[in-house]
Amino acid sequence: MFYREAGEFKTSYKADQATFPIRFDRIFFWSVTAFAFLVVPFLINDYWEKAVFIPFMVFALAALGLNILTGYCGQVSLGTGGFMAVGAYACYKLMTAFPDLNMVPIIFLSGAVTAAVGILFGLPSLRIKGFYLAVATLAAQFFLVWLFNKVPWFYNYSATGQITAPERTVFGFAVTGAAAQPATTYLFCLAFLFVFAWVARNLVRGRIGRSWMAIRDMDIAAEIIGVNPLRTKLSAFAVSSFYIGMAGALFFALWQGAAEVTEAFGINQSFMVLFMIIIGGLGSIFGSLVGAAFMVLLPVLFKNIFVGAFGWPTDLSQYLQLMLVGGLIIFFLIVEPHGIAALWRTTKEKLRLWPFPH
Amino acid sequence: MAFVDPGQIRDADAGQKGDVLLRVEDVSLSFGGVKAITAISFDIKQGEIRAIIGPNGAGKTSMLNVINGFYHPQEGEIWFRGKKRKALKPHQIANEGIARTFQNIALFKGMSTLDNIMTGRLTKMKKNMFWQAIWRGPAEREEIEHREVVERIIDFLEIQHIRKTSVGRLPYGLQKRVELGRALAAEPALLLLDEPMAGMNVEEKEDMSRFIIDVNQQFGTTIALIEHDMGVVMDLSDRVVVLDYGKKIGDGPPDEVRRNQDVIDAYLGVAHD
Q: Which Pfam families match (chain A) (predicted)?
């Protein structure tokens, strides 16, 4: 009835450290998951797939990745777009080099390739931090995009310089190319998002997550209690890039179907993902998902309301949206640096007491 | 050692009470032209509380930084557990069994009390990323195992009520206590405390003194502490080493040090000719 833990007594540490310690949360989470897996695939159409669900899931994965690096380990990165490009091009090369390979391992391998590249570009983090590291990752962003433009091997010497996803299947169902059904691509992305959101949650709650957060909060103290800064920072770069690489691969293969590197993986993409985790909440898994949902749904919502219902010109609605996002970022940075996730936490704490004031 | 079940076998490396645990030999440390420490030698024996005192700028904190590997001395040797120590990184020294607290609290502000103390167990947690990602099974079992140890520390320090509070929101005295808890969680052979009672009121000092004595007596942890409150130092410590201007001017039991003319001069101040 009420949202509270009264009457729920934890008798083991296992129960105490569960992800959803309150029964209401648990029921709510599993209902949403069941709905997403069992009901949505039957209702989904092309518009919802391409405009809402797939972009949300792709960016949620990327936001999870960046949040691991920036929110949990405190290493600011502006190279997200570049790393997504690595994932996308790795995916393309794997798809064309091994036409019979199932899409699942292809996505994993794209992530793994990106993780290796991420470790390489993470090396400067051992010497520099803060703004300077952000600039170093910015260099990665521009270098990677330049590389994929410059070296024709990456796009298989195609005349346009674009990469296009051929049709590939999972268990006989097409997930890429023109024949892919909305329900199939949706389920494919959802499975990845569900599993890897879960994995992210597991990583941040245990030994590795605490090492990351220790480095984020005070690197010198972390080192003195026995955290190896080299391994910890590089592991954050590796895991983060793995997520972002998978997001890039899904972005290219399942969502866009074709990509041109400057346009698809430019600096705008890096900022977009950074805004997601700032608005959603730094250092929060839930925040990554909310931030991604917010940034993906906002344009759709604006378009439907202002252009669709009110008949305003498209550019006006777009500018309005830019102004709103900019305003919100300033608002969150000043008022609530931990984003929507923190607001949500505060609301829940208030709810526990409601309707009594204390 | 500390916080394991009674009756469990002691660490094989842990020597007998009274053996020399750590010896500093002729250590000199300078920053450019500034000599922070000049040819200092002393030892810390198994099971004792060793105080390091001296006026401001005497080189006490530099000495602790040398012991836990944050600074590498230009000259001199450090012997730990009977072996000469190589130049190690701080995180390697933490693995060797030296833990410390800081003069200015160095807690992880974004984490809860429980998580902060759990970070003290990081050197003892071994499950790799694969098991961590799966969580169910080995990683979860390991987590619970260490949680039990940490909960005993929380009980010991009487901070059960702030277990899940973010440490940034805690008052100063409690933050100091959480920091002690984090150092204890590593079950160190040697615990370095840098001004554990700085800025505390009398009641908080008494609490902290009680914890320090309990840690030393119940768990046999060797402690080296820096402190300015002479009353506390004289009551707590077994032996005191006195530094002034980077040099050692006194070493011995509290009563002896108290009568040492050089020490009195350093504290009261005499004209340096």
A: BPD_transp_2
Question: In chain B, which residues have their Cβ closer than 8 Å to the Cβ of A220?
Answer: 70, 106
Distance from CA of A250 to the nearest CA of B (A): 21
Lay out the sheet containing B34-45: strands in order across. Answer: B34-45, B20-31, B75-80, B83-84
In a domain, A218, yes or no: yes
User: Do the chains contact at B148 and A13, CB–CB below 8 Å?
Assistant: yes
Residue B164 CB-half CA count within 13 A: 2
User: What residues make up the domain containing A178?
Assistant: 44-353
Is residue A14 one of the residues assigned to a domain?
no
Burial A318-335 (b: 16+ CB within 10 A, else e): eeebeeebeebeeebeee
The answer to whether the CB atoms of A226 and B123 lie below 8 A apart is yes
User: Is the torsion defined by CA of B132, B137, B138, B141 positive or negative?
Assistant: positive
The partner residue sitting opposite B119, judged by closest CB among A14, A225, A228, is A225
Neighbours of B204 (CB within 10 A): 17
Q: How far is B135 from chain A (nearest CA, A)?
A: 6
Query: How many whole angstroms separate alpha carbon A247 and alpha carbon A118?
Result: 14
Per-residue confidence (pLDDT) for residue A293, from 0 to 100: 95
Residue ranges of the domains in chain B?
20-97+190-273, 105-186
DSSP conformation letters of B17-51: TTSEEEEEEEEEEEETTEEEEEEEEEEEETT-EEE
Size of interface A-B (CB pairs under 8 A): 105
Say how many domains are in chain A. 1
> Which candidate, A156, A137, A149, places its Cα nearest to that of A83?
A137
pLDDT digits (tens, 9 = 90+) for B138-187: 999 999 999 999 999 999 999 999 999 999 999 999 999 999 999 999 99
Q: How much is the pLDDT for B6?
A: 41
**Best residue in A68, A73, A108, A225 for a mutation probing chain B (most B CBs within 10 Å):** A225
| Interstrand relation of B20-31 and B49-53 (parallel, antiparallel or unpaired) | unpaired
**Two tokens, residue A238:** 């590796």
pLDDT tens profile A51-100: 999 999 999 999 999 999 999 999 999 999 999 999 999 999 999 999 98
Residues of B in contact with A210 (CB under 8 A): 111, 115, 118-119, 122
Q: Do B144 and A14 lie within an 8 Å CB cutoff?
A: yes
What's the rounded Cα separation, in Å, for the pair A293 and B181?
A: 40
| Out of B95, B106, B123, closest to residue A218 by CB | B106
* A22 belongs to a structural domain: no
Of B100, B139, B182, the CB nearest to A206: B139
A320-358 pLDDT, tens digit per residue, is: 888 988 898 888 888 888 889 989 888 888 887 777 766
- pLDDT confidence of A41, banded at 50, 70, 90? very high
CATH code (residue A53)? 1.10.3470
At B185, the amino acid letter reads A
Q: Is residue A16 part of a domain?
A: no
Q: Is CATH 3.40.50.300 the classification given to domain B20-97+190-273? A: yes
ipTM: 0.89
Closest residue to A228, CB basis, from B91, B106, B125: B91
